[in-house]
């Protein structure tokens, strides 16, 4: 480990990943993961991160160039604290960045997970070569990271990209206490709620009483009518939301993560039907919809990219 390297910390609602990124090979060289969850104590979790990283530092004989943190929740880039994370309530207000700076004495940079993943796909994945792209997490929830004119766009308060809150229907699963919002149709949680609601009047023998998005996708592949109808509605509603983004931001590429990457054949047709119906022909023609390339490693690459860009931006300010 003689070449420059970074430490990445990917904080998620169900697990945390600590990774070692080798700059010379532009790859994640090593990863350790452990569970988080609703009762996860931030002090204990960060202490575990510190222990893992210190073992790597001892092995390398030198500290990392920087640490990058990807936060699965609303993140305050100015204070370096978790602002709000429904799956990690004990982390609200916890000073993630300053705690890691104190532990290692190296630069530490943070972003919310959607921004971090957008940066990762832009640098290393499906967004290479694009100056204008949108990345949508499309996992348990639905958030977006925006790369506009070759730069990450955060907005005035750092909350740009909260596309899941867009209301696209008068009714729908009540995600974020907002029935009819896009996340209620285009997220793992929303898909599960849609299926559960339909199960009340039209139960499927292929689905459990409390189905997950994974259960629904597997049943749809077996031809289950209820699951197919749920995913068709998901695709149509997601397409409506994407059409708005396409017309407003005119991106070259939209990258869809997690669920789309695993279920593209079940979703693409209905997504494209809605986009063709709703978006302007000119903006629609200029934009391609693709699955994320980095798969299960996207959070690790996201955290490392946050570290790399933090270092690069800091150097620009000194020149």
Give an overview in words.
- There is one protein chain.
- The protein has 319 residues and is α/β, with parallel strands linked by helices.
- The protein has two domains: 5-119 and 296-318, 2-Layer Sandwich (Nucleotidyltransferase, domain 5), CATH 3.30.420.40; 127-293, Nucleotidyltransferase, domain 5 (2-Layer Sandwich).
- Helix content is 42%, strand content 19%.
- The protein has helices at 42-60, 96-104, 113-124, 188-199, 213-221, 225-249, 258-278, 281-286, 298-318, and strands spanning 5-11, 15-22, 27-35, 66-71, 74-76, 81-84, 108-112, 133-136, 144-148, 151-153, 253-256, 288-291.
- It has a five-stranded mixed beta sheet with strand order 3-2-1-4-7. A five-stranded mixed beta sheet has the order 10-9-8-11-12.
- A hairpin with a 4-residue loop joins strand 2 and strand 3 (27-35).
- The longest helix has 25 residues, at 225-249.
- The radius of gyration is 20 Å and the shape is globular.
- The protein starts with a strand and ends with a helix.
């Amino acid at each position: 480990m003689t070449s420059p390297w970074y430490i990445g910390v990917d904080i998620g609602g169900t697990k945390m990943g600590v990774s070692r990124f080798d700059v010379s090979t532009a790859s994640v060289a090593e990863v350790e993961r452990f569970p988080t969850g609703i009762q996860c104590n931030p002090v204990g979790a960060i202490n575990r991160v510190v222990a893992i990283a210190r073992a790597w530092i001892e092995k390398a004989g030198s500290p990392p160039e920087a640490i990058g943190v990807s936060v699965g929740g609303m993140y305050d880039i100015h204070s370096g604290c978790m602002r709000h994370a429904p799956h990690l309530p004990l982390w609200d207000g916890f000073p993630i960045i300053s705690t890691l700076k104190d532990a290692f004495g190296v630069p530490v940079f943070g972003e919310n997970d959607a921004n971090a993943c957008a940066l990762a796909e832009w640098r290393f994945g499906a967004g290479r070569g694009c100056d204008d792209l949108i990345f949508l997490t499309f996992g348990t929830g639905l958030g977006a990271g925006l790369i506009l004119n070759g730069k990450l766009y955060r907005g005035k308060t750092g909350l740009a990209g909260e596309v899941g809150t867009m209301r696209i229907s008068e009714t729908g699963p009540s995600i974020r206490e907002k029935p009819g919002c896009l996340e209620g149709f285009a997220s793992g949680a929303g898909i599960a709620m849609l299926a559960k609601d339909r199960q009340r009047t039209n139960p499927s023998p292929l689905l459990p009483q409390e189905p997950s998005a994974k259960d629904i996708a597997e049943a749809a592949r077996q031809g289950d009518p209820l699951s197919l109808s749920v995913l068709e509605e998901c695709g149509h509603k997601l397409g409506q939301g994407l059409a708005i983004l396409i017309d407003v931001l005119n991106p070259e590429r939209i990258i869809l993560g997690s669920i789309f990457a695993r279920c593209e054949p079940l979703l693409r047709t209905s997504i494209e039907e809605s986009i063709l119906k709703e978006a302007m022909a000119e903006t629609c023609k200029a934009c391609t919809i693709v699955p994320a390339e980095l798969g299960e490693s996207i959070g690790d690459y996201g955290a490392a990219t946050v570290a790399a860009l933090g270092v690069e931006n800091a150097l620009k300010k000194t020149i």
